[in-house]
């Protein structure tokens, strides 16, 4: 008997629209309280949207309102700025 291959969860980037494995992407989360944060663990409760580990994909997601659609809420400009800073610091690592 052949061992069954383990299924890899795929998610679509809200910026570039490419399907990638969940581990290759950043999760942006709308918490039940309504705040929007970066979920580095990928396990927090709330509605999530996925973006590649690049500032370009984040910019595309902001421009085409992909994050707002995925999170099903209006995202304030200052939230975009704070997320951009966090993604920039992660990208430099």
Q: How is this fold's topology laid out?
A:
Blueprint: E1 10-12, E2 19-21, E3 25-30, E4 36-39, E5 47-52, H1 55-63, H2 66-71, H3 77-92
Antiparallel strand pairs: 1-2, 3-4, 3-5
What key phrases describe this protein's structure?
93 residues, three-stranded antiparallel β-sheet, 24% strand, two-stranded antiparallel ribbon, alpha+beta, 3 helices
How many beta strands in the DSSP annotation? 5
- Helix and strand content put the structural class at alpha+beta
Q: What strand order characterises the main sheet?
A: 4-3-5
The Rg value, from CA coordinates, equals 14 Å
How confident is the prediction overall: mean pLDDT? 91
Strand content: 15-25%
CA-based shape? globular
Order of helices and strands: EEEEEHHH
Share of helix, binned: 25-40%
Q: What's the main sheet like?
A: 3 strands, antiparallel
Uncertain stretches: none
Distance between the termini: 43 Å
Number of helices: 3
Structure in a nutshell:
This protein has 93 residues and is of the alpha+beta class.
Description:
The protein is built from three helices and five strands; from the N terminus they run βββββααα. The relative contact order is 0.20. The model has no long low-confidence stretch (mean pLDDT 91). It has helices spanning 55-63, 66-71, 77-92, and strands spanning 10-12, 19-21, 25-30, 36-39, 47-52. It is of the alpha+beta class and 93 residues long.
